[in-house]
Amino acid sequence: MGLKSYLSGLFKGFYSLLVGLRVTNSYFFHPSRIVTQQYPENRKTLKMFERFKGEVILVHNENNEHRCTGCGICEMNCPNGSIEIISKMETGEDGKKRKAIDKHIYHLSMCTFCGLCVKSCPSKALAFGNEFEHAVFDRAKLDKVLNKEGSVLMKGVE
Amino acid sequence: MQGVLYDFTGLIQSIDAVFRASMSDLWATVLEYAIIGIIYLVIYALIGLFLVYAERKVCAFIQVRLGPNRVGPKGFFQTIADFIKLLLKENIKIKNADGVLFNLAPFIVIVASFLTFGTVPFAKGLQGIDLNIGVFFIMAVSSMGVVGILLGGWSSNSKYSLIGAMRSGAQIVSYELSVGLSLVTMVILTGTMQLSQIIELQSDGWFIFKGHIPALISLIIMMIASTAEINRGPFDLAEAESELTAGYHTEYSGIKFAFFYLSEYMNMFVVSALVATVFFGGWMPLHIGSWQAFNHIMDFIPPIIWFILKSFALMYVIMLFKWTFPRLRIDQLLKLEWQYLLPISLFNVLLMAFVVYMKWYF
Question: A5 touching B, CB under 8 A?
Fold first, then answer.
């Protein structure tokens, strides 16, 4: 090891250490960059993120219409059987009989939030909601019916 | 500057006079020793607890977290709660451990750090003991702690502890040299090892400015080597949580563990205080040569505040080291010492001797 490479290694190493120190030091003197959420206190203002997987929801619009045709693909795709579709036959305006959703049952207690149902839904009826405070005292409360009462299929969705 | 906050000598002497007037000389001495001992124990524990809190806050802020924030305002009483928890914990008796040595080890460690703590000059006249070989004493006693660490590792009868202790031994023996040589460099400049005199000599400028280049080199070496000597990250191979669970204190629990923990933080304080004393003037306010007006303004800040500010700034730097740099391997650790720090500090001693000989210092 020559003297030149010894000294250049020394100074380069020292410089790189100073660069690292500058980064951590700037974090210390800028506490506004802290990302920690003070959860129970900020419950009112807490805004979850777009990609957060809190629970599976069936999206309803303001006219209480959803896009679920009751095809059952989500039920087949669910690896742990957390979705049950109960369908019914319905007569449309044109007099034809077609399959429609009666109850879209979602067992939150079994769901692993893998997202296969949301991904595989052909009519994009399912989505992930941001609600995450799911703790309850009765297990039966975790079996949810996703379609709201009196909701109907959105027009134009086959 | 007048007033108690600026010079404690008068206060201490008057207390001493009161004691000596009301009882015999022997009893007065015994009582004074006892009182000073108790005060130092309390300060030792309080500074240690505060440092643990400060470390957790600093590391949290560096990692963009909040750190302790539930117990008391901003989590200030967190470490007191932790300490109470440690006191109440069971002292587990390790089967097949060497009982005597196992119980002795934490005491050696804490006694070593407490002895060095006694020489720290907090302010004018506020110093436990002002030895005329203060720097040498701190060097000698602080390296006694490694005996405790080795004993703890050996007597635990656990592989993790033994590996941690052996690493610690190799590390301290190596880095002791650099710490010693960088202090020798400064002693060449100061011409005395008495801490109070070292501070008095800096009344017209700190040694970091007076000694310029060699003092700066020796400050950098001192900071690196003393971080290694007190077994703190990035040189914390002795504990290395990810490799050895906790290193030499794996088998310790309860108050004995607290002793190790406390002494580790207090060593950090003593090292910072020593660096502040030798390089940055201890409790001496920032004085620049013959700028009378400037010096006078600086004198308004009490010396104890200066001392606390300096030592805490240095401790912040040591904490920054720990939370910025990754841990070294044992071969890198020894390479850094024997190939870089030691040759440079040897060269630096020569440079400082030359500078002093030519009177190139201020």
Answer: no
Q: Could you tell me if residue A42 is inside a domain?
A: no
Q: Which residue of B has its CA nearest to A34?
A: B64
In a domain, A141, yes or no: yes
User: Which ipTM score applies to this complex?
Assistant: 0.74
Handedness of CA B40, B45, B46, B52 (dihedral sign): positive
Q: Which two tokens stand for residue A8?
A: 């250049």
Domain span holding position A14: 3-33
* pLDDT at residue B1 greater than cutoff 60: no
Is residue A142 included in any domain, yes or no? Answer: yes
CB proximity under 8 Å: B 56-85 to A:
58, 61-66, 69
For residue B66, list chain A residues with Cβ-Cβ distance below 8 A.
Answer: 34, 36, 38
Give chain A's domain count. Answer: 2
Q: Assess whether A28 and A99 both reside in one domain.
A: no
Residue type, B245: T
Q: Verify whether the Cβ–Cβ distance B325 to A35 is below 8 Å.
A: no
Residue with the larger pLDDT of the pair B283 and B181 = B181
Concatenate the DSSP letters of all residues of A38-107 into one string: -TTTTTTT----TT---EEEE-B-TTSEE------HHHHH-TT--EEEEEEEEE-TTS-EEEEEEEEEEE
